[in-house]
Amino acid sequence: MRVDKFLHAMRIGTRTQVRRLIKDGHITANGEPVISGKQQINPGSDTVFLDDVQVRYQQYFYYVMNKPVGVITATTDSAAKTVMDLFNTTDFRDDLFPVGRLDKDTEGILVITNDGALSHDLLSPNHHVTKVYEAEVTGEITAAQLANFNDGITLKDGTELQPAQAEIVQFHEIENFTTIRIMIHEGKYHQVKRMVGTLGERVVGLRRIKFGSLTLPVGLLAGNYRALTDDELTALKADANQPVGE
Ligand code: URA
Q1: For the chain, is the Cβ count within 10 Å smaller at the N or the C terminus?
Q2: What's the CA gap between 130 and 133, in Å, rounded?
């Protein structure tokens, strides 16, 4: 692999910054100065340093984003802004992708990675990673209505849903809407909106606050992202390995 590609892939800097670091003599490979970005290195066995800090090879990258309303959950789109457009040039890699999807008008926690196996396991129906949403719903919703979700409901198109747990957070009397919290264990298309639709009401605001054991980090503003901590990643991997029903 070219050393400049390696340094960029390890998020040392943009392509231009990496070129400059090489030109200015900041990079060594196996103790020898690197003079060209074209120089080939083996990321698994060669030792690369940026000044006196070793640049270690990392295969997988994991981020948690607070997806804002108005961007789509996709890697590319010819017209709309995507969640990948929110990455800065140092962190962006073209193999990153979002794990699952949130609607354009939904905000909240979204995991972005280049680890296809983990993503597959998290989304697999065999693991049923739990997701928690806060929804603003038209009208006054009662606990009895939400109790219907406990046994699993059938949507208008015949889709049968697994049991879900929902509770009332607050009824906003003046504006006449109810904030509810709902926990689902699958990820059907527009699932929360369609569940609320069975109550004869509409979702007017939707925010995902939990994905598996990951909680939307306090202080992570909409549109921002950060790398997962080691503890968060360990917990997420445990979620992905959880057998059904546990
Ligand atoms: N359910 C929905 O209706 N929309 C989302 O974005 C996520 C869950």
Answers
A1: C
A2: 10
Q: Which of 67, 104, 190 to mutate to test the pocket of ligand 1 (most atoms within 8 A of CB)?
A: 190
Please write the tens of the pLDDT for every residue from 184-215.
999 999 999 999 999 999 999 999 999 999 99
Q: Which residue has the tokens 């059938």?
A: 154
Residues 72, 117, single domain; the answer is yes
Half-sphere exposure of 50 (CA within 13 A, CB side): 17
- Is 12 in the same domain as 75? no
pLDDT over 70 (residue 165):
yes
How many domains are there within the chain?
3
Q: Domain range spanning residue 39?
A: 3-54
The set of residues, in sequence order, having a beta carbon less than 8 Å from that of 93 and lying 6+ positions away, is 9, 61, 114
Atom of ligand 1 nearest to the CA of 101: 6
Quick one: tokens of 173?
């009397």
181 lines ligand 1 (CB under 6 A): no
| 103 included as an active-site residue | yes
pLDDT tens digits along 61-80: 999 999 999 999 999 999 99
106 lines ligand 1 (CB under 6 A): yes
Q: Is residue 89 part of a domain?
A: yes
pLDDT digits (tens, 9 = 90+) for 217-231: 999 999 999 999 999
Atom of ligand 1 nearest to the CA of 208: 7
Query: Do both 122 and 228 map to the same domain?
Result: yes
Q: Which of 46, 103, 121, 157 is flagged as catalytic?
A: 103
**149 and 191: one domain?**
yes
| Residue having the nearest C-alpha atom to atom 3 of ligand 1 | 190
